[in-house]
Design a protein that fits this description.
Elements (H helix, E strand, L loop, with lengths): L2 E5 L6 E5 H6 L3 E2 L6 E2 L7 H25 L1
Antiparallel strand pairs: 1-2, 3-4
The chain binds zinc ion (ZN).
The site of zinc ion has 8 residues, from loops.
Length: about 70
Amino acid sequence: MPETEIACPVCQSPLVFDATLLVRGDKITCGTCDTAIGIEPGGNTKATMEAFAAARRTAEALKVERKKRG
Ligand SMILES: [Zn+2]
């Protein structure tokens, strides 16, 4: 089974999942922060990964904000 590892966009924990489940429309849930991550059935993987990257940038920006405030 093809397994993919990504960092959770919310808590940055590594998530290992079977990419075929996502493509089928199943969701994966982060065991650390309980965020459900999934794509629409028939959606394309590239768009999903781009959305994921955007979410990660947002999470990183939030982290920077927090750091600035101390
Ligand atoms: Zn998480």
